[in-house]
Amino acid sequence: MDYQFKDIEQKWQQFWADNQTFKAEDKTDKPKYYVLDMFPYPSGAGLHVGHPLGYIASDIFARYKRLKGFNVLHPMGYDSFGLPAEQYAIQTGQHPAVTTEANIATYRRQLDQIGFSFDWSREVRTSSPDYYKWTQWIFMQLFNNWYNKDADKAQSIAKLVEHFEKNGSAGVNAVADEEISSFTADEWEAKSPNEQQQELLKYRLTYLRESTVNWCPALGTVLANDEVKDGFSERGGYPVEQKKMMQWSMRITAYAERLLQGLDKIDWPEPLKEMQRNWIGKSTGASVKFPIDAQNSKPATQNYIEVFTTRVDTIFGVTFLVIAPEHELVAELTSPDQKAGIDAYIIQTKKKSELDRMADAKTVSGAFTGSYVINPLNNEKVPIYIADYVLAGYGTGAVMAVPSGDQRDFLFARHFSLPVIPILDTQDITVEADPTKEGRYINSDFINGLAYKEATAAVVAKLEALGLGKAKVNFRMRDAIFGRQRYWGEPVPVYFKEGLPHLISESDLPLLLPEVDKYLPTESGEPPLGRAEGWKHPEGDYELSTMPGWAGSSWYWYRYMDAHNDREFASKEAIAYWKDVDLYIGGSEHATGHLLYSRFWNKFLKDIDLVVEEEPFKKLINQGMIQGRSNFVYRLIDEEGRGTNTFVSHGLIGRYKTSPLHVDVNIVENEVLNINKFKAWREEYQDAEFILENGKYICGVEVEKMSKSKFNVVNPDDLIARYGADTLRMYEMFLGPLEQSKPWNTNGIEGVFKFLRKFWRLFHNDVWEFTVTGAEPTKAELKSLHKIIRKVEEDIERFSFNTSVSSFMIAINELTDLKCNNRKVLQDLVVVLSAYAPHICEELWVMLGNGAGTLSYAAYPKFNPAYLVEDEFAYPVSINGKTKMNLNISLSLESKEIEEFVLANADVQRYLDGKQPKKVIVVKGRIVNMVV
RNA sequence: GCUCAGAUGGUGGAACUGGUAGACACGCAGGACUUAAAAUCCUGUUCCCGUUAAAGGAGUGCGGGUUCGAUUCCCGCUCUGAGUACCA
Questions:
Q1: How is chain A split into domains, by residue range?
Q2: Is the pTM of this model over 0.95?
Q3: Domain A726-867 belongs to what architecture?
Q4: Most exposed residue of A75, A264, A406, A483, measured as fewest CB within 10 angstroms of its CB?
Q5: What class has domain A282-475?
Q6: Which letter does DSSP use for residue A738 in this model?
Q7: How many CB atoms sit inside 10 A of residue A260's CB?
Q8: How far is the CA of A634 from the C1' of B26 (A)?
C-alpha cells in the first residue's frame, strides 16, 4: 500500500496511549535523563505552528536518549492560572476553571496529534488543588525561614528566635528589612508576642511590606517588574503607574550573589545569562555619608546624606550632590527661598509619565534645594540639587556628582553653571566628561599622584577611619512582589490577626480558592476574593491577594518527579534519583521572570535540604521565535480615490494606484493566490477581478507577528490533516537551526512529505507490496547507512536537528539509487529515523517483524567506521588557492608522492604553462595547492 | 546610547577544528508519461561573458589585514533583529 499517514498515525498514537509506552520508570538501573519543556499557558486560541517547535526538538532528543539506553523523564503539564482566563470570566461570567478545562482539552488534542512521547501519567496543572497545595506549602517554608549571611543560606525562623532569646539581635547577620531594631535578650523577652512577630516579619523570606508597586488600574492588579514593558503591562498593553501598597514580597535579593555566581556553572545560552546578569545588576563601589552643613536648617531625621558610588576615587571632583525628587529628606532640606522652585519641579516630575521621562532623557532638568553638604575629605561646601535623573529606587536615591567624570553630571553642571574639576592628569574635559581611570590624580589632596587602584583603596580606608563610608556592593535587582489583586491564582495560606499575618495550619492545606459571584474587585476596592461569602479563618480574615503567575511555575519540575504524592511535594527518593533537569527547552522571553524565580526557589529548597542540586536546569536551549509571514493583495484605487473590486498582481503594482490588504495565507501557495478560494473567502470578493502577470496572481509578502488579525496564522491541525504529523515534525526541524528566529513559511513542506514517501517506498515494490530481502548488505549500502548513523548521533548531541533532516534525505536518495531493499540496512535505518518520524517508523518496524511498541526502546545502531574507509580521494588541486580540478589519488600516498603525482599530471602542466611552482602545499586527505 | 546575536543564490538553509562555497529542499525552466489535468519521474538552475560545447572572470553585507589558502581568524564600518534603558 502507498504511504497512508492518517491511518498509521492514528493507530500508533492510540497504541502509545493504551500501552503507556512512554511512562518513565522510577526504579531502574538505567541512568536517568530529564528532558523538560516549558509548560504552556492553555490559551483559548490553541496552538499555532510556532508553539510545537521546541516540543518537537525536545521530543526528538527524548526519543533519542531512550534509544541510547537512558530512563527518560519527559513530562508535560499546564501553567493554568493566569490573567486571560480571568479576563474572559469577567466578560462572560464563566468560571475560569471551566474555560481553562476546555482550553486544556484543545491543547491536549493538538499535542497528541503531533505524536509526542510525553509521560502523561505525570501531568500537572498549577490550578489544580493537589498541585497548588504544595505551592502554598513552599510559601509557608519561605515564611518560616530567613537568610543568614554568615552561613550564606536560609535558616529556620525558629533558630533565629532561639538566637534572640539567648543573645538578642547581636551577632545576627541577616538579609532583612532596613529598619530592623537592635535589642538584648532581655528586651526580646520583654516584647509582646505581637511585637516579636512584627520584628520577625522583617527577616522572613516572604514578608509584608509597604512598597512602591507597578499598579495597573485596567487590570486591577500590581505587576512584577518583568511584567511591565516601557510603562505598559506586558499582557494587554495597559498603562501602569506607581503606587504605594502593602504587599507580599519575596526576598530574592538575599540570593542575588548566588544567582549571579551560579550562572557560571550552568550550560545556558550566553545572551540569556547576560540578561540575568544585567537584571541582577551587581556593581561594586562604596557608600559615602556626606554630613549636612550645620549652617543650614538641619533635618531632624538625620544629619547626613548617604550616596552610593562606583568611583569613590573621584570624590575630590564632587561639585554638587543630586538626590531624587522622591527622596525622603527633600522637604526638610528645602530652604524657604527655594521652596517655590522645588515644589514646581516635583509637580512637573510627577506629571511626567514614565514614557515622557524616558523620551526626555537628554534634556537637563533639576532644582536647587538651598542646602549644602560637606565633602568629608576636603570639607568643601557642596550644594544639594534634586533632579529626576536620579532614581529613588536605586542605591540610596542620592548621588555625588562628579562632572569631570560623568556625562550626566557634566551636562547638569553646564546647565546650572556649576564648577567642573579635573581630577586626573590625563582627563580631557573640554567638550564632554571623561570617565577614564588612566593617569595620576590631581586636585585630590592625599591621593595626588596615585593611580586608580591604590587611590580607591586609600579613599575607602580614610572614609572608614572617619566612620563616613565603606566599600559596598549594590544590586539593581529588587525583591519580587508576590501578590496579585486577582481571582484566578493560588490563595495565600495566611490569615490576619490583630493586623499581623499568621500561617494557616499545614493540615488545612490546600487553602481552596473560594467561589465568588463576580470576578471583579469589591465595592470597597478589595480584591475579588473579598466577595467570597463565609470564607474566613476561625482566627481572622484570610489574605485576599492571590499569588502571581510565576508561583506555580517556580517548582513544577519537581512535581513531575512524583506527581501524585499527597504527603510531600515530591518524595526524597524521587528527588534523589531524578535530581535536576538535564535539558530544558523554551523561549528566552522567560529570562528574567520564570527562569530567575525558579533558580531562586530552587536554591532556597536546597538550603532547607528538600532538594539536592543548587541549580535546577543544567542545560537550557532557547528555541527561536516563529514569526508570521503575511501575504497581501493589492486593491486598485480608481481616479476618485475609491477602492475597486479589482486586484493587481504584486509585480505590476508600480503601474497602478493600489492599497495593500492582508489575505489569508492559507489560500496562497508559493505566493500564488488561489483565485477561486479568494472569491469564496468573503462575499465582497465574489465578483473580484484581477490584473494578472503570466496568468497568475502573485501576492506580496511581509514578516509580522503571527496573529489572527493579520490572517497569517498557520494551524498545525491543518498541516497534519494534509501531510501528517511525521511530515510536520520533520519540516519544523528542517526550517533551520532551532535557536534561530524565523518566519513560518509552509513552502517546502512538500519536500519533506516526498522524502517520507520515498522512504516508505524503499520497503515496497512497484505495486506497493512490502518487499525486503535477507541478503547481505553491499559495501555501498553499508556506507550510506553508517554515514547517517554517525551523522544523526553527532547532530542530535549538538542540537542541530535541521542538518539531520537533510542527511536523511541524502541517505534515502542514495539507497534509492542503490535500489536497496535489504532488511539489515533498512531495519537500522528505521531505528535511526524513529526519533524524528516515529509513526511511520513504528509501522515499518512491525512490518519488518518486530514486536509492536518495542521500537521506542530498541538500541540505537552502533556506528562502525570501517564501512566509511576510503582508499582513494578526489584531491582538489588549486593554484593560488583557486580550485582548478580534482585528481583521484590513493590515500596511501604520502605528501611527497602526492606532489610528484600531481606535478606529473598533463592537465596540471597545462595550467602551470611550463613554469615551476614556487611552493606546493599538500594536506593529506584534504587538498593540494600550488603557488606560482 | 549600551549589551548580545546575525548578514551566504529567486527562497529556507549547508559547509562541525582555516582546506572543493552554495549540500539538502522549495521555487523556476525544459522534458517524459497522459486524450487532458493532477500525481510521479528525468534534466538544468550563484552571477557575468560565451553559448553546441569548452574556456574565462567575479562571488559569502562593505573596506582593510593575517595566511600557500578566509563564509570561518583579526581590525574598522554599514545594516537587521533581540534585550535593556538616566543604575551613580
A1: 139-254+479-542, 282-475, 626-713, 726-867, 870-931
A2: no
A3: Orthogonal Bundle (1.10)
A4: A264
A5: alpha beta
A6: T
A7: 18
A8: 25
